[in-house]
Structure of Bulb-type lectin domain-containing protein:
Amino acid sequence: RIVSGSWDETVRVWDAETGQAVGAPFQGHSNWVTSVAFSPDGKRIVSGSSDNTVQVWDAETGQAVGAPFQGHSNWVTSVAFSPDGKRIVSGSKDKTVRVWDAETGQAVGAPFQGHSDEVTSVAVSPDGKRVISGSENKTVQTWNHKNVERDHVSLSVKSENGWILDSRLQRLFWVPPHILPGLAAGRAFLIIGPFLTTTVDLSNFVYGESWVQCEERTETDD
């Protein structure tokens, strides 16, 4: 099978051998279909559209599965399934990348922000741990959608007691307070001042709720 999306606002499935259309076109988008992809098991098709939405379809019947995924503020330019079929990734002219729950259509986490121009292509690594995006700003970006979103770190702030806070002022991680003055924050790459520059390696950083349990145990032990 081959799946195609068109400016005629439809999605079509074709027999790869004969070139014949399989069933009727899938109708539901209100503007151009810009990107399509099969799920790993071939049972679902995902489409992105210039109507700013993502839609999942039953590959056999052509019926929409659930409501359109809404969240992007501009054209959806690219869509992809994760290798396990549980997540859908989308890129948009709104300069963001989003991850969705393929079953519920709910956004998973905050949008990935960092590109300075529209996102033109997205993909998921074979192990499902990375999202890759290409952009009109001539860059390729890798994201870890299971861990901290990029904008949490780039917009982080330093608190006086050693906690690094995200853009929503929630705790990300703790460092000894005496190194805070020299800690490079956000996109800073050079600090000129009386303090030694300190950087934190976040390559294996996991962001979630488990730190709360750790903090509670520590307070009890103290």
Observations:
- The radius of gyration is 21 Å.
- Residues 36 and 47 are 4 Å apart (CA to CA).
- Residues 210-221 form the longest helix (12 residues).
